[in-house]
Amino acid sequence: MSATTSRKPKWPKKITLGNVTVTVYKRTTPNGKTGFMVAYKEDGKRKFDSYGSEAEALEEANTKAGRLSTLGVKASQLTGDELHAYVAILEAAKPLGIPLGRVIEKVLEAVAIVGDVDKIPVACKFFVERNRRTTRKPVAEVVAELLTIKESRGASPRYLEDLRSRLNRFAADFAKDASSVTTADLQAWFDAKKFGSQNFMGFRRVIHLLFEFAVARGYAVDNPAAMMERVKVKHGQTEVFTPAEIARLLAKATPDFLPCIALGAFAGLRSAEIERLEWTDIDLEGRHITVGADKAKTASRRVVPICDALGAWLAQSAGHQGKVWKGGHDEFYEAQQETAAATAIEANPEQGIKAQPAVKWKANALRHSYASYRFALTGDAGRVAGELGNSAAVVHKHYRELVKPADALKWFSVLPEGEAMPVTVKIPSGTRHPSLQNVARMPALGTTAAN
After folding, report:
1. Of the chain's two ends, which shows fewer C-beta atoms within 10 Å, N or C?
2. Is-contact 413 421, C-beta < 8 A?
3. What is the mean pLDDT of the chain?
């Protein structure tokens, strides 16, 4: 009779180091394949990890056994204060339902990110506040919504085309939620693009508009474009509008923006001065505008005359109160582009109308135009400089003989439809253009400005 030999089963396999035992099980998976499971105890809980091969499972079992054994040795060496601290942290973590090891792991990860353990609560509060107040929406979707609303509100096709071109280009590079875009992100993007000064400010303007829109609708907490650097736009030669162009711009301007164009074209006020101007600064009866030191670029008070043309345009807003321009800074420049785009004329053969492209908006051209046409009429650089708030040298350098006196007369004769220029002849004193003495319908230009 032969004897039977009892053999110890090969599985499960156990790896023991000190008081730590890690067990490796061999099992058959639901799809019929062989798998391996490593079982061990950590943070008071039994845990299981799966592996595809025996060698991988055994290697990991040895690693875990070594680590847990080392931790056990170190735990036995803890002082009384350290044990008290450990127990306190363990008790604090229990209500959260998170293993203590994971809590410590994430705290260390957070310290590595913010650089200081005391900054973790501040960073967490900022994160919660930022995400609680916003609806997560990708930049591309915010752009699409903004364009849809602008179109529904009657924005001109050319203005929409500019917005669409710039914002879609921006959105293509920002595949993230609008609430996640930071000022540093924007600055890095602009730096990488290496835009020229004019293009830089053009993109900055529309991106600022985009995030103002996002903030208003709860897609972002703040406007990251607001803190971006500004660059001074460099321009080439001084550009002016023609009398025909200013007539087209005034004809298409909205009622709230029309006074702004008139003040730039017929008084030479800077855009920033117009944005700060109050209706109380305009004396239609006394025929002058007071640009206070708090509104002027040079921080010095000056008085600018109101000519007949300007008086006629401003009379349409008589009785208005508060600020002349009630919109924001960026909206002011939006209005410029929208007004220019609205001047395009489509061809209508049946009515004999020929197509005309939109008037191109030229940077600072309203002020340049006033200075050029005014200097052409008076020949008095000091007088014009006083009205502009700069120096006679600047007037001579930039505006001398830039336009013809006859065109200057046409410029100051642009009036609202149905208005007629006064017949009274008012030739500016000291004119250097004898040919003007025969002009029968010279526009009144007011009195000499005082500083």
Report:
1. N
2. yes
3. 82
Residue 15 has pLDDT above 80, yes or no: yes
In angstroms, the CA 420 to CA 393 distance is 36
CB 138 within 8 A of CB 175: yes
**225 Ramachandran zone, left/alpha/beta (phi>0; psi -120 to 50):** alpha
The reported pTM is 0.51
The percent of residues above 90 in pLDDT, for the chain, comes to 39
Tens-digit pLDDT profile for residues 334-344: 899 999 999 99
Q: What is the pLDDT of residue 310?
A: 95
CA distance 384 to 371: 7
What is the rounded CA–CA span in Å between residue 80 and residue 204?
60
Q: Give yes or no for residue 233 having a pLDDT over 70.
A: no
Q: Give per-residue pLDDT as tens, 94-118.
A: 777 777 777 778 888 888 888 888 8
Say which residue the tokens 């439809």 belong to: 417
Cα atoms in the 13 Å half-sphere on the side-chain side of 252? 21
Annotate 329-350 with b (16+ C-beta within 10 A) or e (fewer): ebbbbbbbbbbbbbbbeeeeee
Which domains occur in the chain, in start order? 11-78 (no CATH), 95-132 (no CATH), 139-216 (1.10.150), 243-438 (1.10.443)
Give the model's pLDDT for residue 447. 36
Residue type, 150: K
Q: Is the pLDDT of residue 135 over 90?
A: no
